[in-house]
Amino acid sequence: MIVVMGSHAAQVQVDxxxxxxxxxxxxxxxxxxxxxxxxGVIGVGFPPELPELMELLPGVDxxxxxxxxxxxxxxxxxxxxxxxxxxxxxxxxxxxxxxxGPCSVENREQLLQTARAVKAAGARILxxxxxxxxxxxYSFQGLGVNGLELLAEAREETGLPxxxxxxxxxxxxxxxxxxxxxxxxxxxxxxxxxxxEAGRTDKPIMxxxxxxxxxxxxxxxxxxxxxxxxxxVILCERGIRTFETSVRNTLxxxxxxxxxxxxxxxxxxxxxxxxxxxxxVKPMALAALAVGAHGLLIEVHPSPDHALSDGPQSLNFENxxxxxxxxxxLVVPLGRRVGSAEPAAVPA
Length: 348
Ligand code: PEP
Ligand code: MN
Fold this sequence. Notes:
The chain is an alpha/beta fold. It has helices at about 10-25, 50-55, 110-120, 145-160, 170-180, 190-200, 215-225, 255-260, 270-275, 280-290, 315-330, and strands at about 1-5, 25-30, 35-40, 60-65, 85, 90, 95-100, 125, 160-165, 180-185, 205-210, 235, 265-270, 295-300, 335-340. The chain is built from 11 helices and 15 strands. It is elongated, with a radius of gyration of 21 Å. Helix content is about 35%, strand content about 20%. It has 2 domains: about 1-65, Phospho-2-dehydro-3-deoxyheptonate aldolase, domain 1 (Alpha-Beta Plaits, 2-Layer Sandwich); about 85-340, Aldolase class I (TIM Barrel, Alpha-Beta Barrel), CATH 3.20.20. It starts with a strand and ends in a 10-residue tail after the last strand. Helix 3 runs parallel beside helix 4, helix 6 (about 190-200) crosses helix 7 and helix 10 packs parallel to helix 11 (about 315-330). The structure holds phosphoenolpyruvate and manganese (II) ion. Manganese (II) ion binds near residues 103 and 299.
């Protein structure tokens, strides 16, 4: 249910609505739009007469029920875009936030070198997997807690916040001690115990779309995190399984505007896993920016041919810098920004 305030409603009237909801054991999520304030009602099991009662309160314009079965994640619940703050980085606004780094943290030198290179090229968040979900149990599984310590060291040196994957509910507290953003991987999109545990942390969660997850299932997965109390959710389109074999996955770029229509949550694209091939990463990254992605997740490695995971889709430092240049030339006409530097002048 949402309570839409009249366009001239005073703060005291908004407070009146919030207090009345509290009397029914319900919470409130306030979106202050430019036109009017919308109050999303948090909680279940309210009496059927409540919408009518709320419409009697001073300053209230009308009350509507949310039609989607995911509520908190829906655009109806919050008409304005959610901005997720990670240190001084804001995801969900004008800036295209680039998160870059190796698929797996392999060793100190590899991570620090990559962290310096991606920072110099304009990345805002460092990525690196310490707990890796691998198809084969015989493949490199990640450095675990040692990988988290190396990520923390790279953050210390570069100032870049870090994002890393958490694979199981029992590891959430440990990973949350180190990471600035917790990644829930494609294979875990519907791991409900993991989603609930992530929802109990105070860290932003980046939720990847499952290999065969519909947008509806993905938004319900986000709802699990939010229903557990954590509203800082970022969605990540990373490609889905289709009949196509010339790419590792099919990056579903239509998901970006679809999500922006259905939800207020930020949406980022991962053209690395979305294509599986380094030479497709730049064109699909530019396309993701053009369709309105709030950020990008890009795999970068000092020597992709030596990578312990996902080498074929990883950019070397030169190619990453070239990608960032390409993004810089596109952000200005699109009214966006990228990296920490001032936007380039509009080309004549
Ligand atoms: C990753 O980001 O390295 C990863 C394993 O991604 P996904 O869950 O999308 O496969
Ligand atoms: Mn990877």
